[in-house]
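tool=predict chain=A
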Amino acid sequence: MITNDDSIAAPGLHHLVECVRDMADVIVVAPAHPHSGQSSALTVGAPLKIKELEQKHEGVRLFTVGGTPVDCVKLGLHTIVPRKPDMLLSGINHGSNSGTCITYSGTMGAVLEGCMQHIPSVGFSLLHHSMRADFSLSTSFVKGIAANVLEKGLPDGVCLNVNIPAKVEPAGVRVCRAARGRWSEEYKRYIDPTGNPFYWLTGHFTNEEPDATDTDEYWLLRRHISVVPVSPDMSYTNAIKDMSRRFDSDGSPA
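tool=predict ok
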């Protein structure tokens, strides 16, 4: 099963289909319109419609859903696919999902949903936002990662966030952690023709540990594909003991 957040029309999605369509029976369930930055959002209080499209790839069925990437996964599993898929892929996203971008990513929202459904799930992103981005330089790596997961699976509760450097042939692959960072200067102020201000989302990612050699940002700068294992369980277990000392109680709070 393949989905994305850039919509059914995105070239990255169709490149991903071409990478894997010879490995298995492929069903695409993708948003009818772009839903970047939607994270794990669900459509609530509005109907969802499914539309099957004409084949663009031999042997591949294509469906659109009028909702978010997570809607596509949940509704696709409930209504479209005949059984639980052997693998769920999301992407290839037009733009980075490295570092803390996963918090906002619709691409990875779909992957986390697949993981919660106990499906081996992988998100792919290319560090190039253009709809005319060249995905061909990483084709062999995408195929290799997908084939590995299809054959060997993933630990239950673990999915993969794969980011690909743009405009270069990757020098290799590195499994690593996500760099800590934040987005700054996120909104730019403009004035409309009537003199009223409005704001447009912009900003840039600041890597707060640029010297760390074990992060996705570090390896992407060195022309490597980064593979970050991710879990939908956001419990920070290292803090449980300390927080227990502070908050555990058998009676009413003091």
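Residues 152 and 224 are 23 Å apart (CA to CA). The longest helix spans residues 139-152.
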